[in-house]
Specification:
With 118 residues, the chain is α+β, with helices and mostly antiparallel strands. It has one domain. Helix content is 25%, strand content 15%.
């Protein structure tokens, strides 16, 4: 599991470094949950896809501490932390073991059961 998170985080670092604008970004209508902030934390930090008001760059990857993720981004309906969406295109899913609810699907082959993707 730690390897999957590390791979996701590496992809996010590349995204942040490149500062890419992604055309045709899908709108996301959910918020990251405090449980997801905890799950995706690596060394006390979490990469969040933060929704902006810019049509040219509707999402940016930001690296925040767990507290900022829980207190700020979990309150922002367009922000998300997901697995498999390093360019913040709104096509994310949740990795095995991630906390889940009806707002964001588990990755293919997984289902939300008792609050986590299995």
């Amino acid at each position: 599991m730690k390897g999957l998170r590390s791979l996701f985080l590496l992809a996010m670092v590349i995204t942040v470094s490149a500062s890419l604008a992604v055309p045709g970004v899908v709108s996301v209508v959910h918020a990251v949950t405090p449980e997801q902030c905890q799950f995706f934390a690596e060394n006390g930090k979490v990469f969040v896809c933060h929704q902006t008001t810019s049509p040219k760059n509707p999402y940016v990857s930001v690296l925040v501490d767990i507290q900022a993720c829980v207190e700020g981004h979990a309150q922002h309906a367009g922000d998300f932390v997901g697995f498999g969406d390093p360019l913040c295109q709104g096509n994310s899913c949740l990795a095995p073991g991630a906390a889940c609810d009806a707002t964001l699907p588990c990755c293919e082959g997984l289902a939300c059961s008792n609050g986590s993707c299995r």
